[in-house]
């Protein structure tokens, strides 16, 4: 029986060298790791002493340390930018005690089947800072795509735009603290009254994350009153998967309806 | 209303502070010295014979002490249903058998020094199965081609219709009047089928038991149970162990709602202690609670009513099919209650027929659950009334008021339908259902919302109403007893078998005793639910505690008071007729003097003609006076997605005299939220092979405080002469109304009838689509 | 492993294994007021305060709690002889039935009122979104928190 060794590195360099051993795993808030089978794990690297718990604003970039919890992120961002899409996405995720432990970094690294964070980071074209086997600043989208970026690396922080663009987040849940069956996240940049750029993602699909490119293209150049909800619906064609889905055909339909509504809601935030 | 001193007061619950400060002890808080950890192993197959179990690899693991299974456990057929003896449930289960009848049935139990060893070793159990074709559809259960789930050797300990070879776990049929006459007189017939679904009680404390030998060698069972006395008896039976050597203690328990009116873990832990002479701990996980404890019985209810154009129902036919799951505990009694608690409410129907059948399936086991068949029956009846009154353009509340049972009236159903025996005729003594209905109508603003389809964008609103009655104890079957003794400061010990499962019965029964004795509540020292230290009580079910146990307590207290008066008469040289009790003193109205209770007791204990002032009393009841309830819901339906939001829920209950209004409200609120949740989000999702997929709170959704709608609850007091200080029951009834009230509200909003729940967006949407097509 | 924990204002040295969860360690060492309801972070019966913040001890490795951390269980805010205002408010409001969820809910209320002494009803409900109670229907729990807030303001 392997006796797992816990380490509490105080520097990124120390963490980096610990990551060289494949059988060492990272511990952020622990909510995900707690439920996992730890066979094969020889070491747990606890990140609490690395000082990665912060939210900083530098010009128009907000940097969030990887060990910042959802609750801390929401609190800090609410005073900087209350309408920020990250606030909207995270404030209702999971439940109060879990929001105090789930970390931004941990959430990205373990991307669970459900996630309120990922859609928001993708619409923001967020980047993250890595150390370890691969280091540097990378797009979150690339991190999710490229396996090499995820092995033996540590996310130190996430960088997002401090944007007051129009945004909205929808979580499909049965009760308030439910894990979302799917989420829709929308971010729209306006030029006057018409949409200049549009970002829309659904998380929870068969592909896990679906970029709604057709919808994005449709929205560009349009004004609020020019958007036809049923057209938007026609452009959303996804399969929502999960063991709790008893009526997949319905869920695909719901995804259409709620995407259209989320876009309308984003534009109502004036 | 009568004026009382402590009855009718919202006295603080006697255990509230110890619970609030975490000092109360629940089963798993009792430390065991040198205890053994027990881990159950379950069947992965819905229907299979165990051909062989090889436990050698498990036993070889260091720290494993035993593996219990069919080869080394006495095969004693019994029922796990916590009911009075002989139980109205079939003896169809074994502690460990060789036939597995659902995914989650018990194969074996590993006993080890600690959790880690037990869990690791359990994986090494080698079981060879012969997999058989399972039966999942209750409608097909009695078909000749269907698999047979139970043995012809299984039987009820009472006279009850039972055909295990046909998967028939129970059958009930009653009728009166002339159905043909009723059909002839009808102008039209409404024939609809309603389906009540699976639900789990979700007590926050999982089922837990600890067993040990005490210093005298007696087997002590500390269990999270609603039925300590039934536990003692069933453990004695199933383990073949002398009852006199068993002591069952119920400490604080974390909720029951019926799931702990069942004896299915105690015999296992008891066996471990009996064999190994060491304490044992058996606490099941949340997943095990969902899959392998008990559920609400799904019941398909078909209602056929003949109706005259003036609204009168000329005949009513109820055909209920109950899905008992793998075993038959409570299969007969829940089935009976589906009729017996529902049909009497509309007693003007002269021609009635009720046919109920419970069938076995290879699915999780149904058991007692708050409402107990009435919930399922009222889902049907309340929607049926809504359909009927809409068809005739009659006002539903007025219709109910016109036709429901009234004070002084009876129903043939009371006598015809009992619980495994004949029923008991009774006359209604108290009924304030009309006031309850009026309150709901007013508070929900029925007049301005009903049929108005108030719309905002995609969302439409509607209101719905439902009524119900329940019972208060089981007449002539249940028994409760109490014992009281007096102490020299005028305080009293009150020992009761009655089981406080969080409902506050220790407090309510103490209030009854205090009122009868004319002392403040603080002078009563309650102690409950210990088979060695308290007299018998059937336990917490059938809404019996306040009414039945309360009557026993009152009876006992009055006996004690008699003794106090006699001692006082001797002390004061008074005429007994001149004496009366008030505020812990006995007054002589002629002599104008008094003696304190403390002095009286000291005199009795120490001074002259010494004796202990004490008494016992037992009680059975000849009737089960129903509480009555009306509940109204307002919903908002998203016409695009089918998503339903419950905006408001109003509940008004006639529970007789509320002994403790705050506690009564708490019961109403808890039951109502449970009912809403059952209607809106709770469901069991099975795989094609009968495995329960959603075995945890992440996937079986119940509400938090953030989910509840606007809630208004009202206690409408009546006075039930047969009840202690006028009380009836209140704990179960609140769960019956929400589902039909919400269903009726959904219909009010979008004209779609939901014959099955939960009313998830997908189900409502599909119903909407189906409606469009027809 | 061994750590000197700060629990309810007292230091106590506890031994635990690397994969052990905080809930288990606490209960094994006498802190049975912290309850186990689901082990998946949904019911909140295991809720404790870590540096003032409510967390589910069932989802925490004991090893992730270190000496500088301050843990609070429901016994740390008040006891039978000197209950906290919040505990008394729960008693007075009839917000306790079986009481199994109560330690977690009382702590959630405590954490809320520390951060937000005058919460709206919506804020109270949201602060309780990690606590399941099957007995009360939450109505009196919400009232209890509001009563506690009022009484604390008066002090």
Kindly describe this structure:
Chain A is an alpha+beta fold. Chain A folds into three domains: 5-46; 55-161, Uridine Diphospho-n-acetylenolpyruvylglucosamine Reductase, domain 3; 166-268, CO dehydrogenase flavoprotein, C-terminal domain (Enolase-like, domain 1), CATH 3.30.390. Chain A is built from eleven helices and twelve strands. Chain A has a five-stranded antiparallel β-sheet. A four-stranded antiparallel β-sheet of chain A has the order 9-10-11-12, sandwiched between helices. A seven-stranded mixed β-sheet of chain B has the order 3-5-1-12-9-10-11, sandwiched between helices. The model of chain B has no long low-confidence stretch (mean pLDDT 97). Chain B is an alpha+beta fold and 774 residues long. Chain B contains 19 helices and 27 strands. With 155 residues, chain C is an alpha+beta fold. Chain C folds into two domains: 2-74, Beta-grasp domain (Ubiquitin-like (UB roll), Roll); 85-154, [2Fe-2S]-binding domain (DNA polymerase, domain 1), CATH 1.10.150.120. Helix content of chain C is 34%, strand content 15%. A five-stranded mixed β-sheet of chain C has the order 2-1-5-3-4, with helices on one face. Chain C is globular, with a radius of gyration of 15 Å. Chains B and C meet through helix 1 and helix 17 of B and helix 2, helix 3, helix 4 and helix 5 of C.
Short description:
The complex is a heterotrimer of chains A (270), B (774) and C (155). Chain A has 270 residues and is an alpha+beta fold.
Instruction: Identify the quaternary structure here.
Output: heterotrimer
Write the CATH homologous superfamily of the largest domain in chain C: Beta-grasp domain
Q: Which range best describes the helical content of chain C: under 10%, 10-25%, 25-40%, 40-55%, 55-70% or over 70%? A: 25-40%
* Structural shape of chain C: globular
CATH topology of the largest domain in chain C: Ubiquitin-like (UB roll)
Greatest contact between two chains: B-C, 55 and 53 residues
Q: What characterizes the major β-sheet of chain B?
A: 7 strands, mixed
